[in-house]
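Researcher: Last one for today. Full complex below.
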Amino acid sequence: MTRRRGALYVTGLATVMLVASACSMLKSESAGGGGTAATSMTAPGGGDWTTYHGTYQSWHYSPLTEINTDNVKRLKVAWVHHPGRSTRGLQSTPLVADGVLYYTGSYSRVWALDAATGKPIWSYFPKLNDDLVAAQTHSPYTRGIAIGMGKVYVGTVDGRLIALDMKTGQPAWDTKLVNSEKLTVGFTGAPLFVKDKVIIGSQGGEWPGRGPIFGVDAASGRKVWEFFTVAGTEESKKTWGGESWKTGGGGGWMAGGYDPETNTVWWGTGNPAPLYDWAGSDWKTAGPRPGDNLFTTSVIALDPDNGRLKFYHQELPHDAWDFDSAVGEFVMLDRDGKKLVVHPNKGGHVFVYDRKDASIVNVWQLAQNINFVKGIDPKTGALIGRRDLPLGKHTNLCPAIAGGMSWNSGAYSPKTGLYYKIGQEWCMDLEVIKTTPVLEPQAQLDIGANFTLRNPEGGKAHGHLSGRDPVTGTKKWEVTFPEPPLASLLATGGNLVFVPDPRGVLHAYNAETGQELWSHNNGIGHNGGIISYSAKGKQYIAVATGWGSLVGDEFGALFGEPYKSMPKDAGALVVFTLE
Amino acid sequence: MRRILIVSTAATLIAAVVSAQQRPQPQSAAVPAPADAAEGARLFATTCGFCHQDGGRVAGRGPKLAGTDRPDEYLLNRIRLGKDGAMPAYGRAFNEAQLRSLLAYIRSLKDDAR
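Model: Here's the assembly. Have a good evening.
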């Protein structure tokens, strides 16, 4: 950092270009927060947590071993931070670099804290457009940040991307990217820092826009590229009948992953709008959006330098169920000489791709109650026996709109070779109805149905955590929960898996066996991230608490207490260490 | 110079009017707009059914609306202004006729005590 900061004072174009080139070589290596050596974003190592999914490999894994299966029962609260105004709970994942913890609260409030003590270093509360905050379904979520080149990057629900100086919290730039006044969407997900760019995707799905993903110059805040997840290429526009591409939805509302070996950003996209399609099985030629609807409900591979599409795979052609691909992590693994990426889809299947071209290696089923398709071909990824839903009433569609998996992330441990992921079991009845989106400005959603969540036939709605082979899906162990946990998971080098549950209990399991070793009641549900890091020579576990989201809000009606009376305006960051 | 001032003043007035139109209006217009329950049902399935389940007939993410004893103005203002952290404000998006149609749809729902 010192070297780069010093270089800024050097004048002369040639010198600046030379320094810029040198910086470029360092950027992918380091968060660039302080004076200490790089904490790699490319692979786990050291005690920091410098990008939303832990590293570019998206393992949500810390190699730290101080807290382990032998001593986890001595885990105690080290410190707590209350950010205030935790409307709909804390949903974000903190980052840590060089002894400083950075995290966001609701309304894109950013905090920098001493990672060992929780003592505030600086805070930044952006001035938001209150009318737009009030008009949005997902407001005021902020699910994470990115760091790099000495800055913290945060998106806002009124369509801006803001860069803050990591040391002072002072704004470096503030770039308006989305016309939120018209589109009534902005940013809720974390950005991804890659080389010299900050990449962030807008909200989308059943919001009738075109769901762009942006590449922004990290130094200046200048927008460098914009990729539309709806009809982003001329070829893909042909997969939308008539003018339907203009209101197609899409979006890329969660942070993706990055493969430095091929310089490829992997990103998941949202579902099309309207969410349900009254054309039923005639969807190829009729209805509100005839065709495959590229690039919705897809994984897309972009060049981070220019935003050009390299390749893609559409997980659900013409998604008619809201089982989008924006959810989840891109777990990058090497197996038998192949470079793979594992990506969960909201519908309850896990896709395994070859990283060179997104060709299918395998598809396996995680959620048990699935009937929107009879299956997915594990060799080709083709949907088998899809259940399209024409105008009228339908019963027992599984999974429910909340999905077989939610948006928060699972974890992978290179020690056990297991992938840890939550599955959700619930279904719903619905009536598909013809709708017309309200535009200029958008009235938020274009759903196309009324629905009611319900128990699966012959059972009760519930959730489960399992440890599986990430490529084959072979299950080694499973733990069931009366209600699906919605927060992200954490795996550690101490052979532990941490699961923050919706009732408010944080559990630690033996990563090899699934045996519960420790738990602690945080007093309110979890719906955000969890990380581990090292500060001043000690290992810590930090978890976001707080309840309230489109999925979580369902729990009161479906499960009763404690959710009916659980506050939706509270939440804190709770940090643990060994006593 | 005078022409510039006139243009500037006009632009300011237009901007003020546009700004006022974009903001939620807490009170209904003096002349009630025609209500159309069928149009309200379509609008409801477009934007409201995500939270108010089974078309507002049962409690879900949002409260049950069938048989609600809330007065008309309360419901209209709730749709216009939303509820912090729970329901979006639709005052910028729906016109008075659409709001009245949504109200007519809600009032048409049978309360079968589900």
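Chain B has a mean pLDDT of 76. Residues 65 and 88 of chain B are 16 Å apart (CA to CA).
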